[in-house]
Amino acid sequence: SADEFETIRQQGTQFALIFARISEEFLTSGFEF
Length: 33
Prior knowledge:
Radius of gyration: 14 Å
Number of strands: 0
Structural class: mainly alpha
Number of helices: 1
Helix content: over 70%
């Protein structure tokens, strides 16, 4: 249903934001190549 799709989309967006934040923390935590 449309509501079900909307819920999945919101969860995906939330996951993307969390993943981006974790990646940013990881990259800026002094980790150097």
